[in-house]
Amino acid sequence: MIRQCSENDFETIYAIINDAATAYRGAIPEDRWNDPYMSHNELRHEIDNGVIFCGYEDTGELIGVMGIQTIQDVMLIRHAYVRPARQQEGIGGKLLTELRQKATNPLLIGTWADAFWAIRFYEKHGFRVVSPEEKNRLLKKYWTIPERQVETSVVLAESDAEL
Questions:
Q1: Is residue 2 within 8 Å of residue 52, measured between CB atoms?
Q2: Which of 18, 52, 72, 151 is the most exposed place for a label (fewest CB within 10 A)?
C-alpha cells in the first residue's frame, strides 16, 4: 500500500534514508559524504521546506519512501529510498508511478552523476538525463545545493518535458 507519510513516520523515514544511502558510499565524492548521510536536522529542514513523503507499506511496515516538492513551476522527486533488504522488488517504481500521477507540474530529479544504478532506474521509468548546460541551469534555479554538488550531479527530466 502506498500512503502519504505523517509526522509519526519521521524516525522511520530517517532510518530508511540512511540505511539505503549506504549504497552511495564511494559514488558520492568523499567531501560530500556524511555519516549518517542525512541528519535529523537535515530531514526536518527538507520537510519544513515542503518535501512531502509518500511511503510504501507492507504488512504494516514502511519499507520505502519517496518525496515530492513543488518549487516554482516544477516538482522535484526527492529522497527516494527503499530498505536494502527489499530493493529490486519494484517498490521504487510503484512509488515513482504514484508521485507521477499526483504531479501537476513537470517532474525533475537530481542525483549523483556516479550513481549509475539510480540514473538507470529513472531512465527505465521514462526520464532522460539533460545536457550539462541544462543541468547547471536547472540545479541553480530549483535546488539549493553547494557548487561542489552541482559539479557532481545530474538532472533527469521526463522525456516529454519542456523546461
A1: no
A2: 72
Enclosing H/E stretch for 147: helix 147-151
pLDDT band at 75 (very low <50, low <70, confident <90, very high): very high
pLDDT in tens, 107-157: 999 999 999 999 999 999 999 999 999 999 999 999 999 899 999 999 999
Torsion of CA 87, 90, 91, 93, to 10 degrees: 120
- Set out the domains of the chain in order of their start, with CATH numbers: 2-158 (3.40.630.30)
Q: What is the pTM of this model?
A: 0.93
DSSP class of residue 8 equals G
CB contact at 8 A, 91 and 56: yes
Which residue from 157, 92, 94, 104 is spatially nearest to 131, judged by alpha carbons?
157
